[in-house]
Predict the structure.
Amino acid sequence: MLVHEQIKSGRTVLDLRLSNSSARSLPGHVLVLVHGLPRLVGMGRQAAGLLPELAEHVATESGWLVASGTLSGVGGSTGTFSASKWLDDLGVIIERVADEEQRVSLAGFGFGGSLALAVAAKDERVRGVATFAAPAHLAAWSGSPEELHRAVQVAGVVGDEKDLLDPTALHKDLLAVDPMGAIAKIPPRRLLIGHGTDDLEVPASDARDLVAAAEGRAELRLIQGAGHQLRADPRMVATLLGWLDRHR
């Protein structure tokens, strides 16, 4: 069953979809899927395009309640991208799905994985994080302040140009996410780091660096021959479902 909601995050209205299985329900377990930041022209509005379908599949197979939201500037959500705004948005989504009896986990793709690590480092309600193709070194991934600023504009995650930070501020804000520092604070909570061996946007060495930053207390799954876009890869789905099954 898929439920569509709109929730407020400051001045932004976020699209949120909640998927669960009436046939196989596992009460108290919630997974939040987190999309990444696209780099291609006009792809901002489609960055989370496959997540509702993935959420329904994962919910049906696992019995978990699965939430898939679009952050500011993406899909049907209003607003403009910044790393700190997306962190706030993700916090609002967690607040919506969490309660005292539920175990919340995050699964993030690309930069969404880096965000998930940053949120979990500060929020003890998050009991586990899975990342797929997440950059460990945001300075290398984002390029120069001017390159990042231009990429955000080209991708179309800008609702109002007046709300877009200037290049220096936007870059500094993004680097503050610090996935390497964040992941070190998460164990003994569960961690899964997934990556494609042929990822041309984020090298597979970033996955190994994240595991090392967690002092080896993370599962590493390298998907042979896979590129950066893992959301539709059945091996990624199987990896995520297996992790959820062990995470009950």
The chain has one domain: 2-246. The domain at 2-246 is CATH 3.40.50.1820 (Rossmann fold). The radius of gyration is 17 Å. Residues 212 and 218 are 9 Å apart (CA to CA).
